[in-house]
Amino acid sequence: xxxxxxxxxQYLKEHTSPEIASTVMTLADSSxxxxxxxxxxxxxxxxxxxxxxxxxxxxxxxxxxxxxxxLLNALTQNSNCAAVASEELDDISPANQDGTLLVTFDPLxxxxxxxINMTVGTIFSILPYHHQGQVATETxxxxxxxxxxxxxxxxxxxxxxxxxxxxxGVSMFSLDPASRQYVLINERITISQQTAEYAINASNRRYxxxxxxxxxxxxxxxxxxxxxxxxxxxxxxxxxxxxxxILVRGGVFMxxxxxxxxxxxxxxxxxxxxxxxxxxxxxxxxxxxxxxxxIMDIEPTGIHQRIPVVLGAKQExxxxxxxxxxxxxxxxxxxI
Length: 336
Ligand code: FDP
What we know:
Blueprint lengths: L7 H8 L2 H23 L11 E2 L5 E2 L2 H14 L4 E6 L6 E2 L6 E9 L10 E9 L9 H4 L8 E7 L3 E6 L4 E7 L4 E6 L10 E3 L10 H12 L10 E2 L5 H11 L2 E4 L12 E2 H14 L3 E3 L16 E2 L1 E4 L1 H14 L9
Parallel strand pairs: 3-5, 11-12, 11-13
Antiparallel strand pairs: 1-2, 3-4, 5-6, 6-7, 7-8, 8-9, 9-10, 13-17, 14-16, 15-17
The structure holds 2,6-di-O-phosphono-beta-D-fructofuranose (FDP).
């Protein structure tokens, strides 16, 4: 029997600064509270739309709102956090002026999965804060993903897990429900460069750009087409679960640019989803682009900016870029 010995707090002491360690522990403690609520499910009164009332006449919150409040309260009380930005809130929340870190989070990614009892998760990113003594502003957050100090996610699936990077590989932890501790299970997660599995919401096909449509058509042709092998498709419809699958068994995930909603460059958020997941994927040996450009090189223009995402097996991500290059178009359809 394999004995897993190292708990998250011990691991953090050995692998990162006390400030980042403390912030990750705050996130981890909140994730355990969120997981407790998820386990109680309907019995905790967390399903359904926010805004209803319970029997005492109190407002009932949906779990994504509750998760947001949990994380926000915990992080703003951590003296290392200068400010926090959540996918659920319009504005950033300044915290402690002497803090050295900024934290962004998506409290419950894939939240449309809650009511159907499917996998959801919490994604986070930690950035440096450079203006100690001043109140942090949104501009402080607008740093390219390559400046992240740490990122990761907590996935609430059949078990609860944490994937974590500080820029020196990806480690995976599993929550032991008995001790309520995250325990290290793999210190070096790697993604295969090739794959025969892809993830995309194919119902958007008619809104895709030509290079992406061509790519998916090639995969669908399997061993009768130019790729000369059969591909399998999976779509959990929660980025966290689709990305976790790629970390565990490989694959390529796409939420590409589409023309479905005018003015939206993609569905996923750069600061809350794309950057933290790109950091994890790259650190595991994969690649992450908007179809053409490395996501972590993109200079953000707004805290809630949306972006097309293509990530996972390096060879597939590079092949998709080559199709865009051949067509002479950028990931957003503009001519080069
Ligand atoms: P959700 O709308 O449930 O929050 O964050 C957006 C996201 O989930 C991703 O987690 C997921 O990959 C995607 O949207 C699912 O989009 P579709 O509804 O188009 O499948």
